[in-house]
Amino acid sequence: MKLLAEIQNLNQLGYKPKANLTIYDACKKHHKTLFFCFNIRMGIDFNIEMNRIVEYVNWYGENILFPKMKIEEELLFTVLNEEHYLVKRALKEHRRIRRLFKIGTNPMKNLIYIEEELDLHIRFEEKNILNEVEKIISPKQLKDIKEALDLLPTNAMWKDQFWIK
């Protein structure tokens, strides 16, 4: 009874619960890439065998990150203009991140760069691109982005969760 009265009071004050999907709701999996960065850090901190971390990074790149970037490039960034300075920067960062996944003779160096660059990139997109897109995106575009991102696998599907001790 008390809860019902509180809800009615909130409604009288003009509070309306958000029923519409927001760009942040649609892009929840986007934010989860920060966990990937955390997992790399944990693997390094726990002195996990390098090839275990590299296998995970390669799997994540091929199955989650690169498909996510493609979704962003085809669905999210097109909400803005391809000439938009934020889109240009994001595309440039996508190219740089893809190159970092070509792990060479010094995997530790690559892993550190991947973790740092990707962390910065995700935060850039969340603070800048998502804010701009939120202003002009249509409900159908939001739904399409959410549906595409929801089809991607998650970290939990990786067989060797070395980051959990």
Q: What topology emerges from the helices and strands here?
A:
Layout: H1 2-12, H2 23-26, H3 28-31, H4 33-45, H5 50-76, H6 85-100, H7 107-136, H8 139-150
Helix pairs in contact: 4-5, 4-7, 5-7, 5-8, 6-7
| Poorly predicted regions | 13-19
The profile of the biggest β sheet is: none
Q: How many structural domains?
A: 1
Q: Give the helix level as a range of percent.
A: over 70%
Query: What value does the Rg take, in angstroms?
Result: 19 Å
Order of helices and strands: HHHHHHHH
What would the average pLDDT be, to the nearest integer?
89
Please count the helical segments. Answer: 8
Content-based structural category: mainly alpha
- What's the end-to-end separation, in Å? 45 Å
Q: What portion of the residues fall into strands of 2 or more residues?
A: under 5%
Q: How many beta-strand elements?
A: 0
**Looking at the structure, what is the overall shape?**
globular
